[in-house]
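User: tokens in, sequence out, please.
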């Protein structure tokens, strides 16, 4: 992940309910979906172009904040998205037409989970989609015995 000087802060949340268990790297269980997150589903290969376009659109508001380097970041390559998808660590929030409008990528590091990317298309911002994806990832991580969930975010100083 590129570093944008002055804009990165790490956030770490301990998952209190997570028991200490061995983790095997299998895709997370989609059966953990809740009523709140019915629109959250596993990312599919056919979503990848839309995810790259979504990432470009999600970066544009940073330009208006004087953070052009964030807006200009190149989205992950299809090969990188494929690795997250095959590991079962890529989810999208889809609209009623099943088109991705937000997505989350997660990586397992030791006994914790790290949110590698969380993006919401600006036309769907402020609707709780990012928060729903975070809650979903938190539940998946806790359900697999991962004791921490980390997220790196941009802060304007």
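Assistant: Sequence out:
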């Amino acid at each position: 992940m590129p570093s944008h000087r002055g804009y990165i802060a790490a956030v770490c949340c301990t998952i209190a309910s997570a028991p200490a268990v061995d983790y095997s790297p299998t895709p997370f269980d989609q059966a953990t979906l809740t009523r709140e997150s019915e629109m959250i589903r596993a990312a599919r290969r056919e979503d990848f172009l839309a995810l790259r376009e979504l990432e470009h659109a999600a970066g544009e508001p940073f330009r208006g904040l004087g953070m052009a380097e964030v807006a200009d970041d190149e989205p992950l390559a299809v090969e990188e998205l494929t690795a997250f998808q095959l590991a079962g660590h890529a989810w999208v929030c889809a609209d009623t037409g099943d088109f991705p409008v937000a997505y989350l990528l997660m990586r397992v590091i030791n006994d914790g989970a790290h949110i590698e990317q969380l993006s919401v298309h600006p036309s769907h911002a402020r609707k709780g989609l990012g928060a729903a994806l975070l809650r979903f990832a938190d539940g998946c991580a806790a359900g697999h015995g991962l004791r921490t969930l980390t997220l790196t975010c941009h802060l304007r100083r």
